[in-house]
Amino acid sequence: MKDTKKRVPPPVEMGRGARGPGTRFRQGRLWVLLIGACLLLLPAAACGGASSESLTIYSGRSESLVGPVIEQFAAATGIDVEVKYGSTSQMVSTLKEEGNNTPADVFFAQDPGGIGSVEDMLQAVPEAILFKAPDWARDPDGRWVGISGRARVVVYNTENLDASDLPSDLWGFTDPKWKGRIGWPPTNASFQTMVTAMRSMWGEERTRQWLEGIIANEPNAYPKNTPTVAAAGAGEIDVGFVNHYYLYRFIAEEGEGFAARNHHLSAGGPGSLVMVAGAGVLSTSENRDNAERFLEFMLSPVAQQYFASQAFEYPLVEGVRVHQFLTPLSEVNRPNITMRELADLEGTQRLLRDTGILP
C-alpha cells in the first residue's frame, strides 16, 4: 500500500488546508475557531507554540474531509500530529498486520463496521468524552466514540427522474426496469456497512437475493461515493447508492444547477441507515493523553460545527446548527439498529466475494 502519511506541523498557516469543495475557511473565521479551540483545550501547550508532544492518527476518512479540522487541532494544542490516510479497510488491514507494534495512537474510521473490526485493539474511552455522543452513536463497551453522522441515500439525476419515480425501499431497485441505470461503489466501506445492516435486518439469504437482483440489472461500479455522485449528475447513471454529504460538496462547488439530488427512502430499512464515523485510542498508544484530547476536540462545538457547516455531516452534540441543505435526522426514517450490529465487516466482504461483486 502506498504510504500516505502526512505530518501536520503546528502552527497552521491561517486559511490553509481546504482540499475539497465545501471546506474553505475565511481567514478571520478560522482565527475565531482556533481561539475557541484553544480555550476549550486549556490547560494545554500555548496555542500555536512549539511542542515536543506528538500524536499519530490512522485515518480511514479522506484528507479532503478531515484534514482541515485535524490541522485546527494541531494548531490549537501545539501537538505534532502525523496522519496516515487510506481507506478504512486499508487502515484496518494495516492495524491488524502491525498488531502491538503499530505506531498509531488513534484510529479514525469512516464507519462502525471498520472500527468495530479492530475494537479489541482499542482501550476504553473516558466517560466524560464518551457520553458527549448520543447512545446510538457510540460503542456499547465504550471503546470508541462517534464523531459525526452520515445518512445513506439514493442520489438521482434530476433531468431523467423525479423523486416520485423512485421506489420506497432498496428492494424496488431489483425491478428489471432499473437495468443499466444504477451505480454503486462496492469496495466502499460505507456501502459495505449498508450491506451489513441488510444482513442484520433481512438475513443472509434475502441480502444475497438483493445483491443478485442488482447484479442482474448490470450496475455501473465506481471506486467510491464521489465518482458515483458525479456520474449521477452527468446522467451516466440515473441512481446511485451513496452517503448524503457528497452531493452537497458538488453543489457547493458547482452551484444549484448540478443535476442530481438526494432522496431518503420513505419506507426506511437498510437504505436509510444513519452511520457514524468513529474514533478510538489504540491500547498500545504511548500518547494516550494527546489521543484523548483529540477525541475531546472532535466532539467540541468547534469541530462539530466544522463537520456540520463545511463537511455537510450531522453533528452529534447538542447546540450545533445543522446545514440548511440537510434533511433533519428527525425526518429520516432510519432503522432501529445498533452500531454493534454493523461490526461484522468480514462477513459482509465474504458475501460480496461469494456473489462475485468483490474479487
General description of the model:
This protein has 359 residues and is α/β, with parallel strands linked by helices. Helix content is 35%, strand content 15%. It has 12 helices and 10 strands. Strands 1, 2, 3, 4, 5, 6, 7, 8, 9 and 10 form a 10-stranded mixed beta sheet that branches. Helix 1 packs across helix 2 (63-77) and helix 6 (189-202) crosses helix 7. The model is unreliable at 9-32 and 42-51 (pLDDT under 50).
Radius of gyration: 20 Å
Counting DSSP E segments of at least 2 residues, the number of strands comes to: 10
Broad structural category: alpha/beta
Poorly predicted regions are 9-32, 42-51
Distance between the termini: 18 Å
Q: How much beta, percentage-wise?
A: 15-25%
Report a brief summary of the structure:
With 359 residues, this protein is of the alpha/beta class.
Features:
globular; alpha/beta; ten-stranded mixed beta sheet; 359 residues; single chain; 12 helices
Q: Layout of helices and strands, plus pairs?
A:
Layout: E1 5-8, H1 27-41, E2 54-59, H2 63-77, E3 80-85, H3 88-98, E4 106-109, H4 112-116, H5 127-130, E5 145-157, E6 182-184, H6 189-202, H7 204-216, E7 220-221, H8 225-234, E8 239-243, H9 245-254, E9 260-263, E10 274-281, H10 288-298, H11 301-309, H12 345-354
Parallel strand pairs: 2-3, 2-4, 6-7, 6-8
Antiparallel strand pairs: 1-3, 4-10, 5-8, 5-9, 5-10
Helix pairs in contact: 1-2, 6-7, 6-12
